[in-house]
Write a structure and sequence with these properties.
alpha/beta; TIM Barrel; 8 strands; about 45% helix
Length: about 260
């Protein structure tokens, strides 16, 4: 029987903690899953990943309860099929601006008659050991999530979230601010208004939203309120920032030796 920790959490209205990985290391993917992250987002959009390194990370995540999700470079049914056939349990796509683009991606994640995915799973179906079971179950289990990162996509958010097969959305904060004409101004009323509009669309459709939490993560009441408003796809770290911060702290702690 197949299982997706991410799907189970979202179906039960609970938040899911994710981490984005760019270094292509199976060991980091395995460690992240062992540490307790619910889902692992393997980023092929902004990092020099290859299908071989992606499959290795999916396999490593498979040694843990975490759900492996792949962030691809564009709405491309062939890329979606490739990574799902490897065993990814979900797809995240950048710059989905219209409901038509959202439907193309959602359909590519499901087999006919629900979608257009071509059949041919290899590792995903146990290299042929459970092809029938995989084919029967995966359409209900796979997660398809567009990234909302333009003024156009915010304007179309209700239509995008209403597409059958769209399981939620994630906001890309930097690109969204740039599109709104307020680069890196994450406290600007335009940006905060866009986030509110996305959350409200999620509430209307009953689908989870992901965007950077506003305010301090130490403010439990504030965080709970945002989760109750639908912010349940929580990306709470990445291999780059975690290692960067750790390295900086180690060097800064010994900086007195150089003074």
């Amino acid at each position: 029987m197949m299982n997706s920790r991410l799907r189970n959490l979202l179906d039960n209205g609970k938040p899911a903690f994710g981490i984005q990985l760019r270094f292509g290391s199976p060991a980091i993917a395995e460690l992240a899953g062992m540490a307790g992250f619910d889902w692992i987002l393997i980023d092929t959009e902004h990092a020099p990943q290859t299908p071989v390194t992606v499959q290795a990370q999916i396999q490593a995540a498979g040694c843990t309860p975490a759900t492996p999700i792949v962030r691809i470079t564009r709405t491309d049914p062939d890329l979606i099929k490739l990574y799902l056939d490897m065993g990814a349990m979900g797809i995240v796509v950048p710059f989905v601006n219209t409901p038509e683009e959202a439907k193309l991606g959602a359909d590519a994640c499901r087999y006919p008659p629900r979608g257009t995915r071509g059949w041919g799973p290899h590792r995903a179906a146990g290299y042929g050991l459970f092809e029938k079971e995989y084919t029967a179950e995966i359409d209900d289990m796979v997660i398809y999530v567009p990234i909302i990162e333009s003024a156009e996509s915010v304007g179309n958010i209700d239509e995008i979230m209403a597409v059958e097969g769209v399981d939620g959305c994630i906001v890309g904060p930097v690109d969204l601010c740039i599109s709104l004409g307020i680069p890196f101004q994450f406290d600007h009323s335009k940006y905060l208004g866009a986030l509110r509009r996305v959350r409200e669309a999620g509430q209307r459709t009953g689908k989870p939203v992901g965007h950077p939490l506003l305010g301090s993560m130490d403010d439990e009441e504030n965080v709970r309120r945002q989760v109750e408003e639908g912010v349940r796809l929580l990306l709470v770290g990445g291999d780059e920032p975690v290692l960067k911060d750790g390295f900086q702290r180690a060097v800064e702690a010994l900086a007195f030796l150089r003074s």
